[in-house]
Amino acid sequence: MKKSKFILPAVGLLTAGSFAAAISCTPSSKQKEESKEIIIAVDGVQKEFYDEVIKLYEKTESAKKFKIKTFQKDVWGALDINVQGINSKDVADIFYMPADRVTDFTQSKKLAYIEDFIPELFEEVAQKIGATKEEIDLMKQFGTIRGRKDGKSQSKLMAIRHNTEGLILASRLSETEAANELKNASTDTLQELVVQGKALLRFQDFWFGNGVLAGAFEKIRTTSNDETLKKTNLMQRILYTDAKTAKITSGFIKTNQYHDNFKSALKVMAGLFYPIYEAAYLKSESDFSKTVWGQKGITQGDLKEVLSKDVGNAQAKIFSLMTSGKTDYTVIGSWDTQNAEKSAKAQSFFNVVKTDNDNEYLQGPGAWAYGINSRNNGSSPERKQAFKDLFKAMFEVSSYKEYFKKDSKIPFSGKVQQALVDDVRKENETELNLVTEFAKSLGFKDYDALRTDAQTKISEISSLATRGNWGNSWSAENDKTAADAENNQLKAAELKNEIQKPSALSDEEYNGIEVLNILPLRNTVAYILGVSNVDDLVGKLAADATDNQQWLVGNQLLKENALKSEKAAELKEGAIAFHMRKVEKFIFGANGDSGEEKEALIQKLTNALLEDKKAGNSEKINTIKSEVLAKAKEFISEFSKNETTITDENLTRVVDLYLNTYLNPAKVRAAVLGIYENSKYVAGKEATFKEVDEKITQFEKKLTFNKLLKVFSSTQSIAEGGLGVLKAQKTRPDNSNPQFTPVWGFMNDQTFGNAELYKQMAEKKVDSIDKFVDEIANVLSQKFDEVAGKLNVSNSTTSVEF
Fold first, then answer.
1. Neighbours of 357 (CB within 10 A)
2. To bridge 319 with a disulfide, which of 36, 237, 344, 506 should be the other Cys (CB 3.0-4.6 Å)?
3. Is residue 741 a part of any domain in this protein?
4. How crowded is the C-beta side of 140, counted as CA atoms within 13 Å?
């Protein structure tokens, strides 16, 4: 499952609302009439998976008593339930969650304790998937939350792990070429690949970057002569309660006993960032042209985008540079494998190599798991049996197969993996015969010959015909005196340069593709709310939250009682703020964190452009623009403190500038779709470019599973001829800490993804890795000191309270 930009870790203190919800779902408040439905939220890519699950469930006796009811919701939206509460019919009975949400939902009492609710469920699921003893231990460890009750330590099983996913090294080179390079002692670490311009990484995203710290911490621990340090998991010291003082603190704080260890680990991490910072921010244009990046045609602007806190944009930039052959490697989530094959021309995949010669890369254990909504506490034995039957259906091979077809989901247990491999292999043999016959009908020797031809002939035009949005459309802070300043806009010329001209397009057709300036989302919303400096466009999840978040619109910017209106329900995140992406959906019709919604809006605009082209006018596009403008006015009237300060002319201008985020790819698609859909791939044959592309894509997608499984099951190093060995931390990075939320932002927005900080460092002549580490360490010390202080004042705890 692709991870959205905003993965919200544990929220923190138990609010009054969640406490009330917790009380309402206890057995004593069980409704007289037990629900005869089990509600499931279905993401678009999960449809076939749940169709299969329901088909299997319908064969059980439970199906006669309890029906499965589904509703459409993306995986993140299904977990966004703070407004409705757990008892709403718009909230599912089972939750599909990443690790951080297991902690969050446990703290806020949204999950049933599985071992109390259905004691035998875990064992029966483990038996169903044929899990080994080691796999059972890993399953239990992943779904278990450590906390306290009545002052005593406790552990509770809160979720059952469903899949395996992780971070892998992707390369645009063939497996043989990449393996030969990675066997070389001068290019067998991430640091060496970065310095030599061969790799670009999005490690400001702490889900990726935490593996660097963990590896450095492990090296410090194992080589220390201090017996206490040898027994200390330093990842658990990122934000923790000191047993001696009973106060919350952090190893990042200068006065903390572990600070020197943390600073040493930061230097390891800086080894991946400082070379990019130096080239992007310190080098003159002339000097940069002589660097490994400049010589490959990478610009300083490109490198600044790679360091952007908008990690989605950073990844898109890296993929673009891989596609154009300017860099060779990056680290991706396994959920992005199919995307990397298409958008980055990735051909080979490996387990992540060492960070540097002295430090391993130890990634956090990745997976999604199923938990049960705590409103089901007190269910009848019959309803509990229905949950058991449903869970078994979700862990069936045929169900996994349907999920994998859409989202690269790999089953957790080796036995199910092998069963799926066998199933896919049989299917692939049939499919190979079909695509081979198709290739021969077009005059090619075999499928491989067609695929090779299509790689150059189709890939460029295919990528344009399915183009998504690109460019940093999240936030710009070049001019803090005016959110809509031209200096904050992404320029059309730079955006156009991102579009490579396909050979199938004439110069005239390519030059006719119009791309327009973009004003990023936060700047747009800031302008609409009358906020000049985007730094002021922030909010908190709750009044007692410890840190402002850039993805929230706080109530301080809204009119009095705005959060109480009916329309506010679809925008709220937490108690006192709107979610920026929900504001985007309210006005523009798509949540930028939802791939499906973005695709739907781009396609809607594409269709409008094509209809207008046929009619010789711009009526359809103007209608959409008018609808968006009306929603912007509605938002201002309903929620903004500054509803009378913006002229219609300026509002139209600003709203159109952000809509270009979606209109630009629509313009690109509309320009090439005619060629893509109608032009014959081979003269005299019926198959079009689109038909050939779809045949190849569908077949290659089925082969991706084997590639991924080879990586995850590899037990040999690359030097030994394998694909490397996955090395991971034993526990999740948050270590069941409900106060972990700010850490993700501190490591990205405030430091390694902070463009403003990089500019300040350049002005201060921070021109060595030691100075760089000092600056980063200073910011982190300040930020962690602030959050620890606030948590201590509010008597918060770093343990989940059962």
1. 10
2. 344
3. yes
4. 15
* One domain, residues 416 and 543: no
Looking at residue 544, what DSSP letter applies?
T
Name 411's bridge partners: 163
Pair (505, 440) in one structural domain: no
Residues 129 and 183 in one domain: no
DSSP structure class, residue 15: P
Element (H, E) at 77: helix 75-79
What does the block give as tokens for 324? Answer: 């154009």
Identity of residue 104: D
What DSSP character marks residue 347?
Answer: -
- Note the pLDDT of residue 197: 97
Same domain, 147 and 177: no
Handedness of CA 570, 576, 578, 579 (dihedral sign): negative
The verdict on residue 2 lying in a domain is no
Ranges of residues in the chain whose predicted pLDDT is under 50 = 1-31
Is residue 4 domain-resident?
A: no
Helix runs in 645-688, H state only: 648-678
Confidence (pLDDT) at 18: 39
Based on the number of CB atoms within 10 Å of its own CB, is 316 exposed (0-12), middle (13-18) or buried (19 or more)? buried
Query: Would you state the structure tokens that stand for residue 726, as one six-digit string?
Result: 């996955």
Domain count of the fold of the chain: 4
pLDDT (tens digit per residue) in 723-763: 999 999 988 888 889 899 899 999 999 999 999 999 999 99
- Tell me the pLDDT tens digit for each residue of 758-792: 999 999 999 999 999 999 999 999 999 999 999 99
The residue range of the domain holding 560 is 461-672
Domain presence at residue 232: yes
Please state the pTM of the whole predicted model: 0.72
Beta strand ranges found along 172-247 (DSSP E): 240-241
**Interatomic CA distance for residues 464 and 515, integer angstroms:** 13
Question: What is the biggest distance separating any 2 CA atoms in the chain, rounded to whole angstroms?
Answer: 81
Q: Both 179 and 311 in a single domain? A: yes
Q: What's the chain's length in residues?
A: 802
Phi/psi at 111 (5° precision): -110, 140
Query: What pLDDT shows up at residue 644?
Result: 65
CATH number at residue 113: 3.40.190.10
Exposure of 329 in the CB half-sphere (CA atoms within 13 A): 28
